[in-house]
Amino acid sequence: MHTKSLKDLTHEHVFxxxxxxRNERRTWLVVALTFAMMVxxxxxxxxxxxxxxxxxxxxxxxxxxxxxxxxxxxxxxRTHANDSRFSFGTGKIGDLAAFASALILALIALLIAYESxxxxxxxxxxxxxxxxxxAAIGLAVNLLxxxxxxxxxxxxxxxxxxxxxxxxxHSHDEDRDLNLRAAYLHVLADALTSVLAIVALLMGRYxxxxxxxxxxxxxxxxxxxxxxxxLIRSSSATLLDTVPDVQLAKELRAKLETGTDRVIDLHxxxxxxxxxxxxxxxxxxxxxxxxxxxxxxxxxxxLSHVTVEVEACPDTHEKQAA
Length: 322
Description:
Blueprint: H1 3-9, H2 20-48, H3 51-79, H4 93-121, H5 128-149, H6 153-160, H7 178-207, H8 212-239, H9 246-256, E1 262-272, E2 275-284, H10 290-296, E3 303-312, E4 319-321
Parallel strand pairs: 2-3
Antiparallel strand pairs: 1-2, 3-4
Helix pairs in contact: 2-3, 2-5, 3-4, 3-7, 4-7, 4-8, 5-7, 7-8
């Protein structure tokens, strides 16, 4: 076989998201913003003797760590994209980072709930003016970070994927960049706690409801825990190679099962944002080349790695594979 034809037959295993470079840059920018805010709060808290500032500063440190994980995951996935040690590329590095980040988010929710419960039974004096100003600055930084990390594709996939294969709706989880979503949820969680803190502080200052602050803290913790659970569910599904789109798997089978061709084995899984791999075994009385069956799937969006094995029915003793 000629060298040229060998090159034509080989293929890459780079399954990074479409906006990988953009998302990586923006995530690093948010790490820098969040880190600067964290340092400012810890320094100011130490200088002015404010526990509110110190507590929020160290709380923000956990978000810096989590968003930092997302940023390093982008960098690692990019620099090792062509590393042959990764059988199906590094597209799932982001999902691994998202899973770790989700666990940190769940831990943050637990700590907020615990601290709020403690303050409910043992109230502490609150410097309303100073604490409100800090919460407002924190909110501004978080809203800017959320804008930088906002991924439109996380919200409107259902429209442009409506007619991807046939005319059925498909799940859009396989196209999501869960690493970016994890970072986004961390800054959103921070923004939520800032908003709730401002509301609670204003109620405490003008209505005298000192109990409102810890109650609102518990509500915020529950919302953050719900986000963390959703992220754990999505990222773990990818890490465990669950079928990302059951309807798509059925349609792939339907496309291939014509005449005496029968699909006896089909594995569909996500290998990166917007990238899916499939391994299919076909048995037939009149077996065609693997290329024939691959051509049938050529127009299916999102199939980045297709492997087809063809086997004749036992009585013909013929077998072809690729």
